[in-house]
């Protein structure tokens, strides 16, 4: 029997919350189990200097079916430029221990970012610097994906078939976010699952405790949007580029 790619995450949540297998197959919410297990010593954390928000250098997400240990690559602040408001800090993590990950040493940092996102599991951890709402975060995410669609079309990198196919997951993404508040300092982990090598099992973008979207294009482009040009967070892009200059096999 083929196992749905999101079911391991769903069953992990079920174990923690006491939800039966039947119920798990009939609800849209996806939980990445309880709270991530993080290193707490100062030597095991990285500081976003713009916000003083700290990120664990390694991130382990408990699950009935083990997930990899994610390594922090870069951190930075997301700022609304015309107001100068710091919206959230963001950390970029990846499964650098993946045995199938052979980052080309001679590639540019931008090429290494693209390679990592397309070939292994990644996590974006977003930590609001002020009280906000899920709808505000949703609007920012959907705007970023709209830009990615237009950019791909100008590059002739989006076929009509793919553009049609991503409409449903884009609508699904918009529907995941409740009309409720998000408190300052509350992390939102967004997991991009590793590629399976099976075209019938697309990669999944999991928004912790909110739900998931299945689409290779949407899942990968969501993460890559943070690194296009100067990036959604220029400090994150800069920190990631610096980290990747010496990383590769």
Automatic annotation (TrEMBL):
SUPFAM superfamilies reported for this sequence: Chalcone isomerase
InterPro entries linked: Chalcone_isomerase (IPR016087), Chalcone_isomerase_3-sand (IPR016088), Chalcone_isomerase_sf (IPR036298)
Protein name per its UniProtKB record: Chalcone isomerase domain-containing protein
A single GO molecular function term of this UniProt record: intramolecular lyase activity
Taxonomic source organism: Scleroderma citrinum Foug A
One Pfam family this sequence matches: Chalcone_2
Domain Chalcone isomerase: 69-98, 118-240
């Amino acid at each position: 029997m083929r196992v749905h790619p999101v079911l391991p995450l769903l069953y992990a949540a079920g174990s923690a919350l006491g939800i039966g297998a039947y119920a798990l197959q009939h609800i849209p919410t996806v939980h990445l189990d309880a709270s991530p297990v993080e290193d707490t010593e100062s030597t095991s954390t990285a500081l976003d200097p713009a916000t003083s928000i700290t990120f664990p250098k390694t991130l382990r997400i408990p699950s009935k079916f083990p997930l990899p240990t994610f390594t922090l690559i870069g951190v930075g602040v997301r700022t609304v430029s015309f107001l100068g408001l710091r919206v959230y800090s963001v950390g970029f993590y990846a499964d650098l221990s993946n045995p199938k990950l052979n980052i080309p040493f001679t590639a540019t940092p931008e090429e290494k970012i693209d390679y990592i996102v397309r070939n292994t599991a990644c996590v974006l951890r977003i930590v609001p610097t002020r009280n906000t709402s899920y709808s505000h975060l949703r609007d920012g995410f959907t705007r970023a994906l709209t830009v990615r669609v237009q950019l791909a079309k100008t590059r002739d990198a989006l076929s009509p078939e793919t553009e049609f196919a991503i409409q449903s997951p884009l609508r699904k993404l918009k529907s995941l976010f409740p009309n409720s508040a998000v408190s300052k300092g509350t992390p939102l982990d967004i997991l991009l699952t590793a590629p399976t090598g099976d075209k019938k099992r697309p990669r999944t973008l999991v928004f912790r405790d909110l739900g998931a979207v299945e689409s290779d294009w949407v899942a990968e482009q969501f993460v890559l949007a943070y690194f296009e040009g100067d990036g959604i967070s220029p400090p994150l892009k800069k920190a990631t580029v610096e980290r990747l200059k010496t990383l590769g096999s």
